Amino acid sequence: MSGPSSSSRQSDAEREEALDRMLTRLALADDSNLAQVLSKILPYSICSLSSASPSIRKMVMEILTHVNKRVKHRQEIALPVLRFGRSIVMPMIFRWLEILE
């Protein structure tokens, strides 16, 4: 899977195809390896929400809905919070700091 840094070079069709594969992989993952699958799928998916394409945002929402249904009542499944911080939250904080200067 491509990382968030290469996602900006992907066409909408390539990104949509990647998200579709991720949704299929997520649906086929059993609970024993769900955390590992989520650590690869969630950061890319959430970064894809910045796309202007409605079909890509719809695909991301399908992935997030599926994740929510699978982990809502399963506290033992860990979400990749640290990876979110590095790939999503930190760049946003740096942009806010630049604006405030």
UniProtKB/TrEMBL annotation:
Recorded superkingdom: Eukaryota
This protein's GO CC annotations: cytoplasm; nucleus
Record-linked InterPro entries: Ecm29_N
GO terms, biological process: ERAD pathway; proteasome assembly
Coiled-coil intervals, chain numbering: none
Domain Proteasome component Ecm29 N-terminal: 19-82
Keyword vocabulary terms for this entry: Repeat
Keyword Secreted tagged: no
Gene Ontology molecular-function annotations: molecular adaptor activity
Tagged with keyword Repeat: yes
Name by which UniProt lists this protein: Proteasome component Ecm29 N-terminal domain-containing protein
Source species: Vanilla planifolia (Vanilla)
Source species taxonomy: Eukaryota, Viridiplantae, Streptophyta, Embryophyta, Tracheophyta
